Amino acid sequence: MSSSLGRHILVEFLGCSSEILNDVSQIEQNMVQAAVNAGATVINSTFHHFSPWGVSGVVVIQESHLAIHTWPEYQYAAVDLFTCGDTVDPWISFDHLKSAFGATNHSALEMYRGNINLLNRTDFEVVDYKGVQTPVPKKYSRSLWFTDRDDNQALSLKYTGDCLLNKKSAFQSVRVFDSTAYGKMLTIDSCVMATERDEMHYHEMLVHPAMQLHKEPCQILVIGGGDGGTIREVLRYPSVEKVTMVEIDELVVKASKEFFPHLSKEFGNPKLNLIFDDGIAFVKNSKPAQYDVIIVDGADPRGPAEGLFSQEFYEDCKKALKPHGVVVAQGESPMFQEQAFVQLYKRLQNVFGPSQAHVGLFFAPTYPSGMWSIQLGTMDPIDPTKDLDAKKLDAFSEKHSLHYYSGAIHNNTFALPRFVQKMLKD
Question: Distance between CA 191 and CA 53 in Å, rounded?
Fold first, then answer.
């Protein structure tokens, strides 16, 4: 019999695979398997992924726990293996994790916890108020969380534990998870792009205010939008003759076709010309006065999407617009990416004029802060809430069974809170 109550190994794994250390599904599976291999009884697991990198989690076992935190950017993982009794060997867990993470080096410190010779056993009796002992569950519960965050705030969504797609292109990493509250979720570089439950908020608001303001949109250019939601909304308009969509990453389109049929259903539409290319260069090389509406459906201003927030890009968009044309872009959040939000508005003012740059706000539950924006530049000096018949907008929304957009929503979108007005004036 052991002279201690438990064994505790503190481990540092170095030189690990960064990809594995940033994959919460793989880490959870390996931590659970490490416990099972050692002879432990798994009770539950809870794991969180942090954006842009890092995983924290714990596997609770009947004999205590296995815990981990990872730093993929340093190829480093800190692991805590604690087992009670003589039936579980934590070094078996250690061996499994060292191999699974691809560690090239390690340090480990083993401590024996609870020296029996220094402890006094009491006659403590367990009182079972229900008269029945709590059984060990036959199947352990899992609690895995995906977290999209910056240095100051975060959004977390629980998912089933299975990563349905995990691929890396030349531009970015693309993953699909099955969340418990929002259905399937598409992420790019560990940021939420779309979920089945609320993608309509974003796609309807990105498209319909601009399309309704133009009156008779025929030639449409979409930059980005690889999930297909934007072209789905654009192609609701019978006036549209052609949609040119320029997406830099074919992997996003493939992921949407495989896992998001409601988003991707218009990829086969004969009015669509899908081009896999750099959208920024495409706009620069476009003929003058070619498009009625340009829709910029890009990601946050980093990586391949950074140029979509530059003044030069919107100068090129203006050249490519026909008279009475409209450009609209996702404009970030005044609560999350304040600098990018304000800078984009100032650049649209510089390019189109102060009276021809407009900001609208809408509610997007799975985007950071929940408050998101569209920003428009118009060739004509217009008020985006005038000369629009709210009843016609409601009829359009009803006809197409829209989820978010309506006549009242359109008008209220451009009614900005005072703090946002001040932010844009400063």
Answer: 10
Domains of the chain by residue range: 4-143, 199-425
Task: Give the pLDDT of the chain (426 residues) as one tens digit per residue.
Answer: 478 899 999 999 999 999 999 988 899 999 999 999 999 999 999 998 887 789 999 999 999 999 999 999 999 999 999 999 888 999 999 999 999 999 999 999 999 999 888 898 888 765 554 444 555 555 677 888 888 877 777 788 888 877 899 999 999 999 999 999 999 999 998 889 999 999 999 999 999 999 999 989 999 999 999 999 999 999 999 999 999 999 999 999 999 999 999 999 999 999 999 999 999 999 999 999 999 999 999 877 777 778 899 999 999 999 999 999 999 999 999 998 899 999 999 999 999 999 999 999 999 999 988 999 999 999 999 999 987 888 999 999 999 999 999 999 999 999 999 999 999 998
Q: pTM, whole model, 2 decimals? A: 0.79
Domain 199-425 falls in which CATH fold?
Answer: Rossmann fold (3.40.50)
- State which fold the 4-143 domain adopts: S-adenosylmethionine decarboxylase (3.60.90)
- Report residue 363 as tokens: 């509610």
Assess contact for 359 and 371: CB atoms under 8 A.
Answer: no
CA atoms of 50 and 147, how far apart (whole Å):
5
Using only the alpha carbons of the chain, give its radius of gyration: 27
| CA pair distance 144, 263, nearest whole angstrom | 25
Question: Running DSSP on this structure, what letter comes out for residue 336?
Answer: T
- Establish whether the linkage from the previous residue to 52 is cis, with ω within 30° of 0: yes
Measured at the alpha carbon of residue 342, what is the angle toward residues 336 and 347, in degrees to the nearest 5? 140
Which amino acids are annotated catalytic?
A: 297
